[in-house]
Predict the structure of SCP2 sterol-binding domain-containing protein.
Amino acid sequence: MSAILEDFIAFLGPRVTGQLQGTARLEIAGEGAVMLDTTGARAAIGDEAADVTLAATEQVFRSILSSEQNPAAALMMGKLKVKGSPQRALKVSAILIA
């Protein structure tokens, strides 16, 4: 596992633990994926399915997490891709920037 994925897992685990209903997958371009659920964050195993998948570059995710980038704006500008319910994606994003 890359240091970047480890970074995201360590940062996101406390934010999502007990907060997220269902599962979310963050696909970080060129690095891999992080799975999020009510128990925290972990590295995704292969093409593990989730209720919603968010895909972006590391920089876009870091900008969203630091509140420099609005997730809805990133989605509209094509910087953030969503597979699954856009409403669920926005709920996940709200937890990420909390």
Q: What stands out?
A: The chain is about 40% helix and 25% strand.
